[in-house]
Amino acid sequence: MKISVVGAGHVGEMTAVRIAEKGLARKVVLIDIVEGIPQGKGLDMFESSPIEGFDCEIIGTNGYDESKDSDIVVITAGVPRKPGMSRDDLLKINSNIVKSVTEEISTRSPDSIIIVVSNPLDVMAYVALKVSGFEPNRVIGMAGILDTARYRSFIAMEIGVSVRDIQAMVLGGHGDTMVPLPRYTTVSGIPLNHFLSDSQIDAIVERTRFGGGEIVKYLKTGSAYYAPSSSVVEMIDAIVNDKKRILPCAAWLTGEYGIDGAYVGVPVKLGSAGIEEILIIDLKENEISELQESAAHVKDTMKSLEL
Ligand code: APR
Questions:
Q1: Separation of 214 CA from ligand 1 center, angstroms?
Q2: Which of 25, 64, 196, 291 could form a disulfide with 104 if both were Cys (CB 3.0 to 4.6 A apart)?
Q3: How many domains, in total, are found in the chain?
């Protein structure tokens, strides 16, 4: 397995080190536009390997030739959100970055699976799909796992139980239009409303919607990276080990849930082929319309793109 991570900033570096420490690749290539950064971070990571005991080669570079024939490419390149900035504000800057990165990687690794992390996520995934010309099952956006992890964390905090026992799924766009599904949330199989009142659940849903912004507000000069990198690595693990995990990911929809031509967070089966199936689960009318609103917002943003 060879995995390239484009963008050696906070999310990229944590993703690279987690891949290496979990033994998910034989070689990791860390790429960034800033001279010295990927080289220095890559070497530092590699120098931790005798102590940590992983035997993955890690290379940092400013070019793309080292990434040739990657099995998976993670795109984290871009500019992160500053306080007061919405994900859509990032659109123009990041779409140009994702476009140029995708051109570089798709020619050198034509059989790879691309995982997009750069924001605004759902639209950047579309840029990568369009520019690469790959089949939609090989261009996947990372969002739902992160939003779900935040939702699960808040529930565990509120009830006072282990996060491991919270099963949940957050669908929709990565942004204020995400669609958490309390109806499908359980604590070891016990419905959430056994533990929490409607108003407590509403408060958790609201906190989840703005979970990314909460971190930005604290950090002031950057956005979250521990939970985002963990989420990417969970997807990589599912693909590398052909686990057939059912996870919420941003997938290109062509009619599912009444949505055509947009990336939206939905439950998918993730294995060695990437998205192997988009699951259609039973949703109530208001949940479907929330999902469709979320897609409409993504489509609106897509319109302003110049590709
Ligand atoms: N090619 C390669 N790397 C680039 C390019 C480019 N054209 N443009 C910018 N980069 C690099 C930057 O030099 C920087 O090292 O991308 C990296 C981004 O890292 P950070 O600024 O630390 O941002 P990070 O917190 O990692 O977030 C990256 O993920 O969650 C999203 O909203 C977030 O879009 C942002 C992305």
A1: 19
A2: 64
A3: 2
